[in-house]
Amino acid sequence: MSTRGRFGPLVGAIDEGTSSARFLVFAANTGEVLTYHQEQVTQICPKEGWVEQDPFEILTKVKNCVETSIDHLKKLDIDPGDIVSIGLTNQRETTIVWDPLTGKPLYNAIVWLDVRNADTVDQMRSKIYGKKAETLKTISGLPISTYFSALKLRWLLDNVPEVKTAVEQKRCFFGTVDTWLIWNLTGGVHGGLHITDVTNASRTMLMSLQTLQWDPMLCRFFDIPMSVLPQIRSSSEIYGYLAETSLRGVPISGCLGDQQAALVGQMCWKQGQAKNTYGTGCFLLYNTGTAIVQSTHGLLTTVAYKLGKNSPAIYALEGSVAVAGAAISWLRDNLHILSDVNITAELAQAASSTGQVMFVPAFSGLYAPYWRNDARGLIFGISEETKKEHLVKAALEAVCFQTRDILEAMNQDCGIPLTKLLVDGGMTVNSYAMQLQADLCGIPVGKGHLLLLFDY
Question: pTM score > 0.90 for this model?
Answer without folding.
Answer: no
